[in-house]
Amino acid sequence: KAGVTQTPRYLIKTRGQQVTLSCSPISGHRSVSWYQQTPGQGLQFLFEYFSETQRNKGNFPGRFSGRQFSNSRSEMNVSTLELGDSALYLCASSVAGQQNSPLHFGNGTRLTVT
Amino acid sequence: DQQVKQNSPSLSVQEGRISILNCDYTNSMFDYFLWYKKYPAEGPTFLISISSIKDKNEDGRFTVFLNKSAKHLSLHIVPSQPGDSAVYFCAASLQGKLIFGQGTELSVKP
User: Fold this and answer.
1) Residue of chain A nearest B91, judged by CA positions
2) pLDDT band at residue A84, thresholds of 50, 70 and 90?
């Protein structure tokens, strides 16, 4: 069974631009969550989608948005990029959602904002 | 406000000895706790979990202990192996959200 796939692996953008990251979950998984990892901050929860609906949201500004498609694939968008958005963005999928089943993470997209 | 804290950013242990990774939390409403392991350039992988109604869960070399009165969680690895060298994250579940600690980098020396 293929794992969680995130594209692209690396991305370099400049301040003010926008970026879209993609995530393909494990086949059969309907929940997709997004996390931001920065040094010293651990993994910060961005949002979770389940059956195309946002089910949970973390404490990030509205510049961070996401969506989920009918095939469970998900995209995350960051608009008006700031230097502090440089981070590893991780996507995770699970069968039923975070509480009932462990998350399976992709290898992440490393975003650098210059 | 960091609800899940791993106060040790790093830990170094000799191969064959016990590794103990610690995690503290502030919210007594957390109902599920998990540990993940992360190697460089890879996403975290699930290691072991424990429900808040239990105080211990064991899986091979890995044991998780939960002390609810102290709001403290620990992961014991016995015996430690060089391949265990990685960053370990504890996480707590609240209303469907997983809240992670900052991570502890474990180094197991041969």
Assistant:
1) A43
2) very high
Q: Determine contact, residues B33/B92, Cβ cutoff 8 Å.
A: yes
CA distance B65 to A90: 27
Question: Residues of A numbered 16-45 whose beta carbons fall under 8 angstroms of chain B's beta carbons: which are they?
Answer: 33, 35, 40-45
Both tokens of B50, joined, read: 């424990």
Which residue type occupies A26? I
* DSSP character at residue A83: G
Joined together, the tokens standing for residue A84 give 């502090």
Q: Which of A62, A113, A70, A55 is nearest to A89 (CA)?
A: A113
Joined tokens for residue A82 = 């700031």
Give backbone dihedrals phi and psi of B97, rounded to 5 degrees, phi first: -105, 140
Residues B61-105: tens digit of each pLDDT? 999 999 999 999 999 999 999 999 999 999 998 877 789 999 999
